[in-house]
Specification:
The chain is built from twelve helices and 13 strands. By secondary structure, the protein is of the alpha/beta class. The longest helix is centred in the middle third of the chain and has 17 residues.
Length: about 400
């Protein structure tokens, strides 16, 4: 469990799991995912997290201190924090309606000073980065392909992660591990790099966190009552902060944002438990269940007044991270879903100093795009409950059967 940090607030207790859980069913199914994955790239290295992978990629580029790194205006803060930790300078670019960089709007002085560019596959729906790759080659800019949401996938017959000089991924978003990231490349060898070992306490805490997350939601079923009792006894000794008020989170300055991003283990190796789960877990179920849940959202949330799917896909070459829903009344609907304990996110906390750019979709997405989780350990009934809650907030009567 994370400690409360200055400037943050406690999230409401989730009614449904906000991430994958370890249980007996996790170890069932086919070993191979059935589609391309970033881990298939020829050169790979495990890290402690996706943000650690971004940091390590920037370190490997050996850029002069203070060099410009281009970052999208629509971002999670953990996309920006590694740039500062590497001693580099983030400069922001706008995105189009598909989440791709608006390359033609990047000023010449920014383009000529840039040494690297981070481009993300948002929501786990891969985009063709061929044009971005050509722009980077012409400008002499290294491309870091952020696959935090897109561990799996192929678009236009090219595997996700293969456009970038480096690709980074967040395995903890797809498997029931407390932390785990991946740095990969189809173009550059990764030199052998010694990452510091995690402390014994961190190793034990990682095992406890995996078991506690599963027990909270009844995984594995026969052990969960005992585990829940043990964790309840453990947590009785904690000082619990008061419940937070609903509504927007307070704005943070840059120093507070770095604290929230928790960059403490970016130079350390992954935990043993994370490595074991990553090595042992079959991936076929992970892909299949995510595709099924995404399809449930797509069917249940189509043709709505005041809302629409942002990026849809019928491709079987995708295993999405979330279902992105554009909501006209984004503030009200998101906070209502969040405070009701629904498995939802929104990237509404952007880095201080992110500019307002003409024609940029980033600020609009930050307000209007609600990310509905579709991971493999959300049941069909749980997804339908999320859909029904959303329909109710939009003033739509849910059908009896979906």
């Amino acid at each position: 469990m994370s400690t409360r940090r200055s400037g943050t607030r406690d999230a409401p207790v989730s009614r449904f799991p906000k991430g994958p859980l370890l249980g007996w069913v996790s170890m069932s199914g086919t070993r191979k995912p059935g589609l391309a994955t970033v881990a298939d790239l020829p050169h790979t290295m495990l890290t402690s997290s996706g943000r650690a992978s971004l940091y390590q990629a920037l370190q490997l580029l050996e850029l002069p201190p203070g060099s410009t790194v281009l970052v999208p205006t629509y971002h999670c803060p953990t996309m920006v924090a590694p740039v500062l930790c590497a001693g580099l300078t983030p400069r922001f670019f706008g995105i189009d309606a598909n989440g791709l960089p608006r390359l033609e709007t990047i000023p010449d002085e920014v383009r000529t000073s840039a040494r690297a560019m981070i481009v993300a596959h948002y929501f786990g729906v891969p985009q063709n980065l061929g044009e971005v790759r050509r722009w980077c080659d012409a400008a002499g800019v290294a491309l870091i392909e952020d696959c935090a949401h897109a561990l799996f996938g192929r678009v236009d017959d090219q595997a996700v992660g293969s456009w970038g000089d480096y690709a980074t991924a967040s395995i903890s978003k797809f498997l029931p591990v407390p932390e785990l990231g991946l740095l990969a490349s189809s173009r550059r060898r990764l030199p052998a790099k010694h990452l510091g070992a995690a402390t014994f306490r961190a190793q034990v805490k990682g095992v406890v966190d995996v078991l506690e997350s599963g027990a909270t939601f009844g995984r594995p079923a026969w052990m969960s009552p005992l585990l829940r009792a043990l964790f309840a006894l453990k947590n009785r000794r904690r000082l619990h902060p008061p419940a937070s008020a609903p509504g927007p989170m307070p704005a943070l300055d840059e120093e507070e944002m770095l604290v929230v991003c928790d960059m403490g283990r970016i130079d350390e190796a992954p935990l043993h438990v994370s490595r074991w789960i990553h090595r042992s877990m079959p991936l076929g179920r992970v892909v299949r269940r995510r595709q099924e849940n995404f399809a449930l959202y797509a069917e249940g949330l189509k043709s709505l007044p005041g809302a629409r799917p942002l990026l849809s896909t019928r491709s079987r070459q995708v295993a999405p991270y979330v279902f992105p829903l554009w909501v006209d009344d984004g503030d009200r609907v998101y906070h209502a879903l969040r405070d009701a304990g629904m498995p939802v996110y929104r990237w509404d906390r952007i880095w201080p100093g992110t500019p307002d750019l003409a024609g940029d979709h980033g600020p609009l997405w930050s307000r209007h795009v609600v990310q509905l989780l579709c991971h493999q350990d959300l049941s069909r009934e749980e997804v339908q409950t999320v859909i029904a809650e959303g329909l109710d907030l939009l003033g739509v009567t849910a059908p009896d059967k979906m």
